[in-house]
Amino acid sequence: MSLPQRYRITANTIPAVAIADAFALSGTSVEHKSCIRCGENEKLWHRLQWLDCPRKCVLCGRAEHRGDFCFRMPNFFPGVFTRAWFAEHAALGGWLPWENEGYEFYILVRDEALRQLEYAPSTKTKLANAIAEAEKARVEKMEGKTKKMKIALQKQLNQVRVRDQDEEKA
Ligand SMILES: [Zn+2]
Ligand SMILES: [Zn+2]
Fold it and tell me: What letter does residue 62 receive in the DSSP assignment?
């Protein structure tokens, strides 16, 4: 269902629980679905840049405050958009986007995740790594066994030597 051309979201027009529900799957991780700003279901790279999303803000219906949070979040729904909410939905580390640290976190999370996405290894690379790891583990296990055998053998040899010396003395 599409939103009406003009709508007004305030604490008086929409209950906070409805806002919380509408934003339940908004966020910047793979488990999330929609962009925190535009409210559309979007790919991860778009959702990671939610503050910079070029579309209209779903809360105020306007194309303003691009690069910035929507004032409706702290003003009307502070009980929804909490530190815990932003930690879970935007990985802001316990900060709010209207705090300097929160904005810095946004940039860090965005840039780091986008960089990882760009260099994300393919299935083939991951499989090749897994095979190499398994092979390495197998070799190490074998080497461990060989080492143990050598130690055991050395012990036996030493015992024989000691016995020989004892026999010579006797
Ligand atoms: Zn968006
Ligand atoms: Zn807005």
Answer: S
- Compute the distance from residue 39 Cα to the ligand 2 centre, in Å: 11
C-alpha of residue 97 to centroid of ligand 1, in Å: 16
DSSP 52: G
**Using CA of residue 110, residue 116, residue 122, residue 126, what is the dihedral sign?**
negative
Compute mean pLDDT per 10 residues along the chain, 170 residues long, and list them: 86 94 97 97 96 96 94 96 98 96 96 88 88 92 88 85 72
26 has which bridge partners?
34
- Residue 47 CA to ligand 1 center (angstroms) comes to 6
Instruction: Find the helix packing angle between 83-90 and 100-118, rounded to 10°.
Output: 10
**Domain boundaries, given as residue ranges, for the chain:** 16-118, 122-170
Q: Measured between alpha carbons, how far is 149 from 45 in angstroms, rounded to an integer? A: 54
